[in-house]
Design brief:
125 residues; elongated; mainly alpha
């Protein structure tokens, strides 16, 4: 598998696990209630001339900092550990891939271009 595919697969896995943990801890429900409360508060502000123009983008802008603050520390730590683990694994895979490529370019891998699989050269007397 190429590096881009591995990165995409890892990213999807992280997103899936993060989403799962946020649902489990009730964060999704909290954010949903937060959105409802903001919309309710905006609808009560009759003196605000821009209330009819309140967009989804504005809601997201208002909710995002509050929603980020609601993410439990344990979920943040789990995500960070998973990301670090995946980076370490991908780094090893890249190093192994580069090593294999170098060996393929240099013949038998011992750097002497003699295709002898790294064995000793026997002297003939």
């Amino acid at each position: 598998m190429d590096q881009q595919s591995e990165f995409t697969e890892d990213r999807l896995q992280i997103k899936f696990l993060l989403n799962q943990r946020l649902v489990e801890c009730g964060w999704m429900d909290e954010v949903r209630l937060l959105c409802k409360q903001i919309l309710k508060d905006k609808s009560r502000m009759e003196d605000d001339p821009n209330i009819g123009n309140f967009t989804v983008e504005q809601l997201i802008k208002e909710v995002t900092p509050k929603a980020r603050a609601l993410v439990p520390d344990v979920v943040k730590q789990e995500s960070l550990i998973l990301i670090r683990k995946m980076i370490a694994e991908n780094s090893r895979n890249v190093c192994d891939y580069n090593k294999d490529e170098d060996q393929n370019q240099n013949g038998d891998g011992d750097g002497d271009d003699d295709d002898d699989d790294g064995g000793e050269v026997m002297s003939v007397i």
